[in-house]
Write a structure and sequence with these properties.
The chain is mostly helical and 239 residues long. The chain has 10 helices and no strands. Helix 6 (98-119) runs parallel beside helix 8 and helix 6 (98-119) crosses helix 9. The longest helix has 28 residues, at 124-151. The protein is globular.
Length: 239
């Protein structure tokens, strides 16, 4: 399943940067619901599969690693653009441009790959759900990078190079995590799973909570619940 997800991630990033309709899709009225759905998936993955697996291998290592991932997510989002979906969807203009944006998106995509690779040691349902949620923001990553480069005055060739680097970062991270983990001690594997779980909790909370705090949003609540239900269905279907 992992190779299929990585190919889809490449295609989603390329599509987001190349399709003329990408801007309309990313800014469309349906994107908040998609992001809430993704939050439901990620919360369910973190608390039902990833973190319990890490805690079984090493409670202290998994706990501290999850805390570090959560803190890293907060710091990176406030220092550089890391997960741009909601910002791109709502017309935010305060992005870091050029090499800063490229570096932030590359790191973010690489961590996505690390997390996917770690989930191959957890369960098929966790891997499938994480892959589904990843595809939503890979499309937005591609659109965001292409639009930022265009606004910064970069040519088509540099934009294509940037999209290629960001697209390849996810499979690179997955390969590092998947094959590196084969040689890890249980305590080190606990740290890897803890990091993945902490990342998922931060991404889900950072996406969903600000929107819900702005007012009642029945569609987001419903989409969040649908994400939880989808993870439950995948768990029973794939084991």
């Amino acid at each position: 399943m992992l190779p299929i997800l990585l190919v889809l991630a490449l295609l989603a990033t390329a599509a987001g940067g190349a399709l003329p309709a990408a801007g309309a899709f990313v800014r469309g009225v349906g994107l908040p619901s998609l992001l809430a759905f993704r939050s439901g998936l990620l919360i369910a993955i973190a608390f039902t599969d990833v973190l319990p697996g890490g805690l079984r291998l090493g409670a202290a290592q998994a706990g501290w690693s999850a805390l570090f991932a959560f803190a890293l997510g907060y710091a990176s989002e406030n220092l550089v653009m890391s997960d741009p979906c909601h910002e791109a969807a709502e017309g935010c203009r305060s992005h870091a441009l050029g090499s800063v944006a490229l570096g932030a998106l590359f790191l973010h995509s690489f961590i996505d790959g690390l997390n996917l690779g770690a989930l191959t040691f957890v369960s098929a349902s966790a891997l499938a759900a994480a892959g589904m949620s990843m595809l939503v923001h890979k499309f937005a990553d591609g659109f965001t990078l292409a639009s930022l480069f265009t606004e910064a005055g970069y040519g088509r060739e540099r934009t294509v190079i940037g999209l290629t680097l960001v697209a390849l970062a996810t499979p690179a991270g997955a390969l590092v995590s998947r094959f590196g983990a084969l040689r890890l001690e249980p305590s080190q594997m606990a740290m890897l799973l803890g990091f993945a779980g902490g990342s998922f909790v931060y991404i889900a909370a950072a996406e969903l909570l600000p929107r819900l705090h702005r007012g009642r949003d029945a569609r987001s609540f419903a989409s969040f619940g649908a994400g939880l239900a989808a993870m439950l269905a995948l768990h029973f279907a794939l084991g």
